[in-house]
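Chapter review: from sequence to fold.
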Amino acid sequence: MNQTLNAFQNRIGYRFREEKRLQTACTHASVGEEAADNQRLEFLGDAVLGLVIAEALYNRFPGAQEGALDHMRASIVNGRSLTKIARELNLGGALIVSEAHRQHLPEPSDSMLEDALEAVIGAIYQDGGLDAARHCILSHFDPLLQSANPDTTRQNPKGRLQEWTQKHHQGATPIYKEIGRHGPDHDRIYTVEVQIEGHVLGHGQGSSIKEAERLAAQSALRALMQN
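The token string follows.
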């Protein structure tokens, strides 16, 4: 194995029994059909990562309800977190891409890093099993797990809703729109609706736009949890 991939194994803290698996995990689709790429391993790694983080949260917070666990998982397993960890591991330096792709995009995109990290996790699972994958995931995601707090998710419905959309709507951002206001200036009531990709999911009323948005997010979360 070349020195770049060998050094990457040191950074992730796992030595592959079959080093070809790591090479495949680090091979971008731009290399071409003649070379195995990391897309299938990405699919596998995504599932393994979700399972390990869900298990860790389940064990760490025995009193947390399903909704809080789901929101904490979404705050940990998302593109932003994966990209950050991939950069900390200098995964970009281990990626194998075509020369044409490298000339067009000298530095790997966030989505490339996110996908490659999931592929590496999938490769570790194939090579060493679930225990090996769990150990590697927990060692690198531990700061995010340590900062997880079910009380925070309950107190911040707008943050919870955004985490939900990141997970289920490919990163779509909730849009809050004021649709009405009534009452005198000293006692005004604002009405806000929240939309996701053009669909209205909730409404809220409050004495400020901020409060109305918070209540709209709560309404949307209740509706989503019932589906």
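Two observations follow directly from the output. The CA atoms of residues 61 and 80 lie 23 Å apart. The mean pLDDT is 86.
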